[in-house]
Amino acid sequence: MAEPRRLLKGRNGMRRCVAMSSDHEKNKEHPMTHRPFLFLASLGAGAMLAGAATAHSGQCGGSYEIQSGDTLYEVTQKCRIGLSRVMELNPAIDPRALSIGQSVRLKAEGHVHSQAGRDEDGGDDGRQAPDGDNLNPAPAPDARGSYRVESGDTAYGIARRLGISLMELLNANEDINPLALAAGEVLEVPTGDRSAGFSIEPHRGPAGADVAVRAHNLRPDDWVTVGVGPASSEWEALDQARTSSTGRLRTSVAVPDWADPGDVLTFVVDTDRGVTLKSGDFRVVRAEDENERDRMTLRGRVRDGVECPVLRTPDGDVWSLTGADANFTAGEYVEVKGRRAGMSFCQQGVGTLEVTAIDEIAPPRDDDGNRDAGLLDRAFVTGPWTAKGSDCSRPDFDVTRYPGGGLAVETSVDGRARTGDVALYDDASFVFDQGGGRFEIESRGEGELAVIPTERDNSRFGGLDLGADGVVFVKCPA
Protein backbone atom coordinates (compact mmCIF):
# COMPACT_ATOMS: atom_id res chain seq x y z
CA MET A 1 0.00 0.00 0.00
CA ALA A 2 1.42 3.34 -1.04
CA GLU A 3 2.17 5.91 1.64
CA PRO A 4 -0.34 8.77 1.90
CA ARG A 5 0.99 12.02 0.53
CA ARG A 6 0.32 15.52 1.79
CA LEU A 7 0.75 18.88 0.10
CA LEU A 8 2.82 21.22 2.26
CA LYS A 9 3.39 24.91 1.86
CA GLY A 10 6.95 26.08 2.50
CA ARG A 11 8.02 29.35 4.09
CA ASN A 12 8.94 30.71 0.68
CA GLY A 13 5.40 30.16 -0.55
CA MET A 14 6.28 27.17 -2.73
CA ARG A 15 4.22 24.03 -2.43
CA ARG A 16 5.75 20.59 -2.27
CA CYS A 17 4.23 17.12 -2.08
CA VAL A 18 5.97 14.86 0.41
CA ALA A 19 5.37 11.34 1.69
CA MET A 20 3.88 11.16 5.14
CA SER A 21 4.88 8.19 7.27
CA SER A 22 3.28 6.93 10.44
CA ASP A 23 6.79 6.44 11.81
CA HIS A 24 7.04 10.19 12.22
CA GLU A 25 4.74 10.09 15.22
CA LYS A 26 7.12 7.84 17.12
CA ASN A 27 9.53 9.70 19.32
CA LYS A 28 12.44 7.68 18.02
CA GLU A 29 15.73 8.72 16.52
CA HIS A 30 16.78 6.70 13.50
CA PRO A 31 18.59 6.99 10.16
CA MET A 32 16.60 7.36 6.97
CA THR A 33 17.68 7.00 3.40
CA HIS A 34 14.94 9.17 1.92
CA ARG A 35 13.90 12.76 2.50
CA PRO A 36 10.40 13.29 3.88
CA PHE A 37 11.00 17.03 4.31
CA LEU A 38 13.36 19.29 2.39
CA PHE A 39 14.00 22.99 2.00
CA LEU A 40 17.53 24.04 1.17
CA ALA A 41 18.28 20.37 0.53
CA SER A 42 15.52 19.93 -2.03
CA LEU A 43 17.44 17.85 -4.55
CA GLY A 44 16.80 14.56 -2.72
CA ALA A 45 18.96 11.51 -2.32
CA GLY A 46 19.12 10.54 -5.99
CA ALA A 47 20.09 14.02 -7.08
CA MET A 48 22.77 14.23 -4.40
CA LEU A 49 24.33 10.97 -5.58
CA ALA A 50 24.17 12.17 -9.15
CA GLY A 51 25.73 15.44 -8.00
CA ALA A 52 28.62 13.56 -6.45
CA ALA A 53 29.26 11.77 -9.74
CA THR A 54 29.30 15.02 -11.69
CA ALA A 55 31.21 17.04 -9.13
CA HIS A 56 34.01 17.88 -11.53
CA SER A 57 31.94 19.11 -14.44
CA GLY A 58 29.11 20.41 -12.22
CA GLN A 59 26.87 23.29 -13.20
CA CYS A 60 29.13 26.12 -12.06
CA GLY A 61 32.37 25.42 -13.92
CA GLY A 62 35.68 25.29 -12.12
CA SER A 63 34.80 27.80 -9.38
CA TYR A 64 31.91 29.68 -7.81
CA GLU A 65 31.79 33.26 -6.52
CA ILE A 66 29.89 33.67 -3.24
CA GLN A 67 26.77 35.84 -3.56
CA SER A 68 24.86 37.69 -0.87
CA GLY A 69 23.01 35.24 1.38
CA ASP A 70 24.84 32.14 0.15
CA THR A 71 25.66 29.29 2.50
CA LEU A 72 28.18 26.64 1.58
CA TYR A 73 25.42 24.03 1.61
CA GLU A 74 23.43 26.05 -0.93
CA VAL A 75 26.51 26.24 -3.15
CA THR A 76 26.89 22.46 -3.10
CA GLN A 77 23.25 22.02 -4.09
CA LYS A 78 23.37 24.71 -6.79
CA CYS A 79 26.59 23.37 -8.31
CA ARG A 80 25.78 19.68 -7.77
CA ILE A 81 28.95 18.83 -5.87
CA GLY A 82 29.39 17.06 -2.55
CA LEU A 83 30.15 19.12 0.54
CA SER A 84 33.09 16.86 1.40
CA ARG A 85 34.58 17.44 -2.06
CA VAL A 86 34.27 21.22 -1.65
CA MET A 87 36.08 21.05 1.68
CA GLU A 88 38.86 18.91 0.17
CA LEU A 89 39.36 21.43 -2.65
CA ASN A 90 39.17 24.41 -0.27
CA PRO A 91 40.90 23.31 2.97
CA ALA A 92 41.21 26.89 4.28
CA ILE A 93 37.58 27.82 3.81
CA ASP A 94 35.45 28.60 6.87
CA PRO A 95 31.82 27.65 6.10
CA ARG A 96 30.65 29.97 8.91
CA ALA A 97 32.44 33.06 7.58
CA LEU A 98 31.85 33.26 3.83
CA SER A 99 32.31 36.69 2.24
CA ILE A 100 30.62 38.12 -0.84
CA GLY A 101 32.89 37.67 -3.86
CA GLN A 102 34.90 34.87 -2.26
CA SER A 103 35.93 32.25 -4.81
CA VAL A 104 35.23 28.58 -4.08
CA ARG A 105 37.14 26.00 -6.11
CA LEU A 106 35.01 23.24 -7.61
CA LYS A 107 37.65 21.45 -9.69
CA ALA A 108 41.14 20.19 -8.98
CA GLU A 109 44.02 22.00 -10.66
CA GLY A 110 45.28 20.43 -13.85
CA HIS A 111 41.98 18.63 -14.34
CA VAL A 112 42.06 16.62 -17.58
CA HIS A 113 40.48 13.41 -18.81
CA SER A 114 43.04 10.64 -19.04
CA GLN A 115 40.57 8.12 -20.45
CA ALA A 116 36.95 8.01 -21.51
CA GLY A 117 34.62 8.59 -18.60
CA ARG A 118 37.40 9.01 -15.99
CA ASP A 119 39.03 12.10 -14.55
CA GLU A 120 42.72 12.43 -13.85
CA ASP A 121 42.05 12.04 -10.12
CA GLY A 122 40.26 8.77 -10.70
CA GLY A 123 36.72 10.14 -10.35
CA ASP A 124 33.95 9.72 -12.89
CA ASP A 125 33.17 12.65 -15.15
CA GLY A 126 29.50 11.78 -15.26
CA ARG A 127 29.37 11.10 -19.02
CA GLN A 128 26.96 8.42 -20.13
CA ALA A 129 27.43 5.45 -22.39
CA PRO A 130 25.21 5.39 -25.50
CA ASP A 131 22.68 3.15 -23.75
CA GLY A 132 22.41 5.58 -20.87
CA ASP A 133 24.45 3.58 -18.37
CA ASN A 134 27.33 5.29 -16.61
CA LEU A 135 30.70 4.27 -18.02
CA ASN A 136 32.06 3.67 -14.51
CA PRO A 137 29.20 2.40 -12.37
CA ALA A 138 30.03 2.45 -8.67
CA PRO A 139 30.14 -1.09 -7.29
CA ALA A 140 28.13 -1.71 -4.18
CA PRO A 141 30.52 -1.52 -1.22
CA ASP A 142 28.65 -4.25 0.61
CA ALA A 143 28.78 -6.65 -2.32
CA ARG A 144 32.40 -7.57 -1.72
CA GLY A 145 34.93 -6.92 0.98
CA SER A 146 37.73 -6.09 -1.45
CA TYR A 147 38.56 -4.01 -4.53
CA ARG A 148 41.22 -4.81 -7.16
CA VAL A 149 43.15 -1.73 -8.29
CA GLU A 150 42.95 -1.00 -12.01
CA SER A 151 45.42 0.89 -14.19
CA GLY A 152 44.99 4.64 -13.64
CA ASP A 153 43.17 4.29 -10.31
CA THR A 154 43.85 6.71 -7.47
CA ALA A 155 42.86 6.31 -3.84
CA TYR A 156 40.47 9.26 -4.01
CA GLY A 157 38.86 7.96 -7.19
CA ILE A 158 38.40 4.49 -5.72
CA ALA A 159 36.80 5.92 -2.57
CA ARG A 160 34.36 7.93 -4.67
CA ARG A 161 33.42 4.95 -6.81
CA LEU A 162 32.78 2.84 -3.73
CA GLY A 163 30.75 5.55 -2.02
CA ILE A 164 33.06 5.85 0.99
CA SER A 165 35.38 8.57 2.25
CA LEU A 166 39.09 8.64 1.48
CA MET A 167 39.94 8.41 5.20
CA GLU A 168 37.68 5.38 5.55
CA LEU A 169 39.50 3.63 2.70
CA LEU A 170 42.95 4.50 4.09
CA ASN A 171 42.01 3.41 7.62
CA ALA A 172 41.04 0.00 6.25
CA ASN A 173 44.33 -0.29 4.31
CA GLU A 174 47.00 1.16 6.59
CA ASP A 175 49.83 -0.74 4.85
CA ILE A 176 49.30 0.78 1.39
CA ASN A 177 50.92 3.85 -0.13
CA PRO A 178 47.97 5.85 -1.53
CA LEU A 179 50.33 7.74 -3.86
CA ALA A 180 51.75 4.59 -5.44
CA LEU A 181 48.91 2.14 -6.06
CA ALA A 182 49.82 -0.77 -8.31
CA ALA A 183 47.42 -2.33 -10.81
CA GLY A 184 46.19 -5.65 -9.43
CA GLU A 185 46.70 -4.64 -5.79
CA VAL A 186 43.76 -5.76 -3.61
CA LEU A 187 42.30 -3.25 -1.14
CA GLU A 188 39.99 -3.98 1.75
CA VAL A 189 36.64 -2.21 1.50
CA PRO A 190 34.75 -1.20 4.69
CA THR A 191 31.41 -2.99 4.68
CA GLY A 192 29.53 0.01 6.03
CA ASP A 193 27.28 -2.23 8.10
CA ARG A 194 27.28 -0.09 11.25
CA SER A 195 24.11 1.81 12.04
CA ALA A 196 24.62 5.52 12.55
CA GLY A 197 23.18 6.94 15.76
CA PHE A 198 21.90 10.49 16.33
CA SER A 199 20.62 12.31 19.39
CA ILE A 200 19.88 15.83 20.60
CA GLU A 201 19.77 17.36 24.06
CA PRO A 202 17.54 18.88 25.37
CA HIS A 203 14.27 17.92 23.69
CA ARG A 204 12.47 21.19 24.45
CA GLY A 205 13.40 24.85 24.70
CA PRO A 206 12.65 28.38 23.47
CA ALA A 207 13.80 30.06 20.25
CA GLY A 208 17.51 30.85 20.50
CA ALA A 209 18.26 28.04 22.95
CA ASP A 210 21.33 25.89 22.28
CA VAL A 211 20.78 22.28 21.27
CA ALA A 212 23.62 19.76 21.55
CA VAL A 213 23.86 17.48 18.52
CA ARG A 214 25.57 14.09 18.89
CA ALA A 215 26.04 11.37 16.28
CA HIS A 216 28.26 8.32 15.91
CA ASN A 217 29.16 5.70 13.30
CA LEU A 218 29.29 8.34 10.55
CA ARG A 219 32.08 8.33 7.99
CA PRO A 220 35.35 9.51 9.59
CA ASP A 221 36.68 13.01 8.80
CA ASP A 222 33.57 13.77 6.73
CA TRP A 223 31.63 17.02 6.38
CA VAL A 224 27.92 16.95 7.18
CA THR A 225 25.16 19.53 7.38
CA VAL A 226 23.04 20.07 10.51
CA GLY A 227 19.57 21.42 9.88
CA VAL A 228 16.13 21.84 11.39
CA GLY A 229 12.55 22.21 10.26
CA PRO A 230 8.94 21.63 11.31
CA ALA A 231 8.23 17.93 11.77
CA SER A 232 7.38 16.19 8.46
CA SER A 233 8.02 19.35 6.49
CA GLU A 234 10.91 21.32 4.96
CA TRP A 235 14.20 21.76 6.77
CA GLU A 236 16.83 24.43 6.48
CA ALA A 237 20.58 24.17 6.95
CA LEU A 238 21.94 25.65 10.19
CA ASP A 239 25.61 24.67 10.18
CA GLN A 240 28.31 22.55 8.56
CA ALA A 241 30.46 20.37 10.81
CA ARG A 242 33.18 17.77 10.42
CA THR A 243 33.12 14.34 12.00
CA SER A 244 36.06 13.04 14.03
CA SER A 245 38.55 10.41 12.91
CA THR A 246 36.32 7.84 14.61
CA GLY A 247 33.14 9.00 12.86
CA ARG A 248 31.67 10.93 15.80
CA LEU A 249 29.94 14.30 15.57
CA ARG A 250 29.66 16.73 18.47
CA THR A 251 28.39 20.22 17.84
CA SER A 252 25.62 22.57 18.89
CA VAL A 253 23.11 24.72 17.03
CA ALA A 254 20.49 27.24 18.11
CA VAL A 255 16.74 26.87 17.83
CA PRO A 256 15.88 29.25 14.94
CA ASP A 257 14.29 32.60 15.70
CA TRP A 258 11.28 31.82 13.51
CA ALA A 259 10.23 28.97 15.82
CA ASP A 260 7.09 29.77 17.83
CA PRO A 261 5.98 28.28 21.17
CA GLY A 262 4.04 25.11 20.44
CA ASP A 263 6.01 24.24 17.30
CA VAL A 264 7.36 20.70 17.01
CA LEU A 265 10.73 20.60 15.23
CA THR A 266 12.96 17.88 13.83
CA PHE A 267 16.73 18.29 13.73
CA VAL A 268 18.66 16.50 10.97
CA VAL A 269 22.23 15.50 10.17
CA ASP A 270 22.60 15.28 6.41
CA THR A 271 25.51 13.70 4.53
CA ASP A 272 26.25 14.40 0.89
CA ARG A 273 25.72 10.71 0.07
CA GLY A 274 21.95 10.57 0.23
CA VAL A 275 21.60 9.65 3.92
CA THR A 276 19.80 11.85 6.43
CA LEU A 277 19.49 11.18 10.15
CA LYS A 278 16.59 12.76 11.99
CA SER A 279 15.97 13.41 15.67
CA GLY A 280 12.94 12.81 17.78
CA ASP A 281 10.51 15.66 18.35
CA PHE A 282 11.82 18.92 19.79
CA ARG A 283 9.10 21.07 21.36
CA VAL A 284 9.41 24.84 21.32
CA VAL A 285 8.29 26.56 24.54
CA ARG A 286 8.16 30.13 25.83
CA ALA A 287 11.39 31.39 27.33
CA GLU A 288 9.63 32.32 30.54
CA ASP A 289 7.82 28.98 30.89
CA GLU A 290 9.19 27.39 34.06
CA ASN A 291 12.42 29.35 33.64
CA GLU A 292 13.14 27.08 30.68
CA ARG A 293 16.44 28.73 29.85
CA ASP A 294 17.83 27.60 33.22
CA ARG A 295 16.63 24.00 32.99
CA MET A 296 19.30 21.57 31.90
CA THR A 297 19.86 17.86 31.37
CA LEU A 298 23.45 16.63 31.51
CA ARG A 299 25.06 13.23 31.04
CA GLY A 300 28.46 12.10 32.21
CA ARG A 301 30.43 10.55 35.07
CA VAL A 302 30.09 11.79 38.65
CA ARG A 303 32.71 11.87 41.37
CA ASP A 304 33.61 13.83 44.50
CA GLY A 305 34.79 17.37 43.92
CA VAL A 306 36.53 19.99 46.06
CA GLU A 307 33.39 21.35 47.74
CA CYS A 308 30.55 19.59 45.88
CA PRO A 309 30.04 16.49 43.75
CA VAL A 310 30.98 17.11 40.11
CA LEU A 311 29.89 15.69 36.78
CA ARG A 312 32.19 15.49 33.79
CA THR A 313 30.45 15.42 30.38
CA PRO A 314 31.84 13.61 27.31
CA ASP A 315 32.87 17.03 25.98
CA GLY A 316 35.14 17.57 29.00
CA ASP A 317 32.97 20.17 30.76
CA VAL A 318 32.87 19.87 34.57
CA TRP A 319 29.70 20.88 36.44
CA SER A 320 29.22 21.11 40.21
CA LEU A 321 26.09 19.44 41.61
CA THR A 322 24.06 20.65 44.59
CA GLY A 323 20.72 19.76 46.17
CA ALA A 324 19.23 17.01 48.27
CA ASP A 325 18.76 14.83 45.21
CA ALA A 326 22.47 14.82 44.28
CA ASN A 327 23.01 11.29 45.60
CA PHE A 328 25.36 9.06 43.64
CA THR A 329 28.19 6.55 43.73
CA ALA A 330 31.53 7.89 42.48
CA GLY A 331 32.32 6.66 38.98
CA GLU A 332 28.70 6.13 37.89
CA TYR A 333 27.60 7.29 34.45
CA VAL A 334 24.41 9.26 35.02
CA GLU A 335 21.79 11.57 33.57
CA VAL A 336 21.18 14.63 35.73
CA LYS A 337 18.28 17.06 35.45
CA GLY A 338 18.01 20.38 37.24
CA ARG A 339 18.31 24.15 37.07
CA ARG A 340 21.45 26.19 36.60
CA ALA A 341 22.27 28.08 39.80
CA GLY A 342 23.01 31.79 39.57
CA MET A 343 25.54 31.69 42.42
CA SER A 344 27.20 28.79 44.23
CA PHE A 345 29.84 28.12 46.85
CA CYS A 346 31.12 25.10 44.90
CA GLN A 347 33.53 27.15 42.78
CA GLN A 348 34.42 24.27 40.45
CA GLY A 349 33.70 23.75 36.78
CA VAL A 350 31.80 25.84 34.25
CA GLY A 351 28.72 26.17 36.45
CA THR A 352 26.53 24.64 39.14
CA LEU A 353 23.39 22.57 38.63
CA GLU A 354 20.72 22.37 41.32
CA VAL A 355 19.74 18.72 40.89
CA THR A 356 16.08 17.70 40.72
CA ALA A 357 16.68 14.15 39.42
CA ILE A 358 19.69 11.89 38.93
CA ASP A 359 19.58 8.44 37.33
CA GLU A 360 22.32 5.98 36.50
CA ILE A 361 22.36 5.13 32.77
CA ALA A 362 24.49 2.95 30.53
CA PRO A 363 27.66 4.63 29.27
CA PRO A 364 28.08 5.17 25.52
CA ARG A 365 28.78 1.91 23.74
CA ASP A 366 28.86 0.82 20.14
CA ASP A 367 26.19 -1.44 18.60
CA ASP A 368 28.52 -4.19 17.46
CA GLY A 369 26.23 -7.17 16.90
CA ASN A 370 29.16 -9.56 17.15
CA ARG A 371 29.24 -9.03 20.91
CA ASP A 372 26.59 -8.93 23.59
CA ALA A 373 25.30 -5.34 23.35
CA GLY A 374 28.80 -4.04 22.75
CA LEU A 375 30.15 -5.47 26.02
CA LEU A 376 33.84 -6.19 26.07
CA ASP A 377 34.93 -9.83 26.25
CA ARG A 378 38.24 -11.64 26.65
CA ALA A 379 38.86 -12.21 22.93
CA PHE A 380 38.21 -8.57 22.07
CA VAL A 381 40.64 -6.98 24.53
CA THR A 382 43.51 -9.50 24.42
CA GLY A 383 46.51 -8.31 22.39
CA PRO A 384 48.60 -5.18 21.76
CA TRP A 385 46.92 -1.77 21.29
CA THR A 386 48.11 1.58 19.98
CA ALA A 387 46.52 5.02 19.83
CA LYS A 388 44.50 5.46 16.66
CA GLY A 389 46.75 6.84 13.94
CA SER A 390 49.94 5.70 15.70
CA ASP A 391 52.47 3.04 14.74
CA CYS A 392 51.83 -0.54 15.85
CA SER A 393 55.59 -1.14 16.06
CA ARG A 394 55.42 0.46 19.52
CA PRO A 395 52.06 -0.42 21.16
CA ASP A 396 50.84 1.80 23.99
CA PHE A 397 49.60 -1.12 26.07
CA ASP A 398 49.33 -4.91 25.88
CA VAL A 399 46.68 -7.20 27.35
CA THR A 400 47.84 -10.76 28.06
CA ARG A 401 46.59 -13.81 29.94
CA TYR A 402 47.72 -14.70 33.45
CA PRO A 403 48.77 -18.35 33.90
CA GLY A 404 45.70 -18.77 36.10
CA GLY A 405 43.34 -17.57 33.39
CA GLY A 406 42.81 -13.88 34.22
CA LEU A 407 43.91 -10.92 32.07
CA ALA A 408 46.73 -8.47 32.78
CA VAL A 409 47.40 -5.08 31.19
CA GLU A 410 50.95 -3.76 30.86
CA THR A 411 51.52 -0.06 30.17
CA SER A 412 52.68 3.14 31.85
CA VAL A 413 50.53 5.32 34.10
CA ASP A 414 51.66 8.87 34.78
CA GLY A 415 55.15 8.00 33.53
CA ARG A 416 55.61 4.82 35.62
CA ALA A 417 55.57 1.25 34.25
CA ARG A 418 52.51 -0.54 35.59
CA THR A 419 50.87 -3.96 35.44
CA GLY A 420 47.19 -4.09 36.28
CA ASP A 421 44.15 -6.36 36.20
CA VAL A 422 41.46 -6.33 33.51
CA ALA A 423 37.77 -6.42 34.49
CA LEU A 424 35.26 -7.22 31.76
CA TYR A 425 31.57 -7.01 30.89
CA ASP A 426 29.46 -4.54 32.90
CA ASP A 427 32.44 -3.29 34.96
CA ALA A 428 34.94 -3.21 32.10
CA SER A 429 38.08 -1.42 33.33
CA PHE A 430 41.84 -1.52 33.87
CA VAL A 431 42.66 -1.56 37.61
CA PHE A 432 46.15 -0.75 38.93
CA ASP A 433 47.24 -0.99 42.55
CA GLN A 434 49.73 1.19 44.45
CA GLY A 435 48.07 4.43 43.36
CA GLY A 436 47.83 3.56 39.68
CA GLY A 437 44.09 4.11 39.68
CA ARG A 438 41.19 2.71 37.67
CA PHE A 439 40.40 3.38 34.01
CA GLU A 440 37.06 2.64 32.35
CA ILE A 441 37.31 0.86 28.99
CA GLU A 442 34.55 1.03 26.38
CA SER A 443 34.18 -0.32 22.87
CA ARG A 444 34.07 2.36 20.18
CA GLY A 445 33.51 0.11 17.19
CA GLU A 446 35.12 -2.90 15.59
CA GLY A 447 38.73 -3.17 16.78
CA GLU A 448 38.57 0.14 18.70
CA LEU A 449 38.75 0.65 22.46
CA ALA A 450 38.45 3.86 24.51
CA VAL A 451 40.38 4.21 27.80
CA ILE A 452 38.77 6.77 30.13
CA PRO A 453 40.07 8.16 33.44
CA THR A 454 37.70 7.91 36.41
CA GLU A 455 39.70 9.38 39.30
CA ARG A 456 41.79 12.22 37.87
CA ASP A 457 41.18 14.62 34.98
CA ASN A 458 44.78 14.75 33.75
CA SER A 459 45.90 11.12 33.82
CA ARG A 460 48.55 9.86 31.42
CA PHE A 461 48.09 6.35 30.11
CA GLY A 462 50.63 4.70 27.82
CA GLY A 463 52.35 8.07 27.50
CA LEU A 464 49.18 9.82 26.30
CA ASP A 465 47.12 12.50 28.04
CA LEU A 466 43.57 11.18 28.51
CA GLY A 467 40.85 13.75 27.96
CA ALA A 468 37.44 13.62 29.59
CA ASP A 469 36.14 11.24 26.93
CA GLY A 470 39.38 9.23 26.90
CA VAL A 471 41.62 8.20 24.02
CA VAL A 472 40.65 5.70 21.34
CA PHE A 473 43.08 2.85 20.69
CA VAL A 474 43.10 0.34 17.85
CA LYS A 475 44.11 -3.28 18.07
CA CYS A 476 47.41 -4.21 16.44
CA PRO A 477 47.89 -7.42 14.43
CA ALA A 478 48.99 -10.28 16.66
UniProtKB/TrEMBL annotation:
GO terms for molecular function: chitin binding. It comes from Minwuia thermotolerans. The keyword Transcription does not apply. Residues 108-148 are annotated as: Disordered. It comes from the Bacteria. Residues 62-106, 145-189 form the LysM domain. Keywords: Chitin-binding, Virulence. SMART domains: LysM. Residues 108-130 have a biased composition (Basic and acidic residues). This is LysM domain-containing protein.
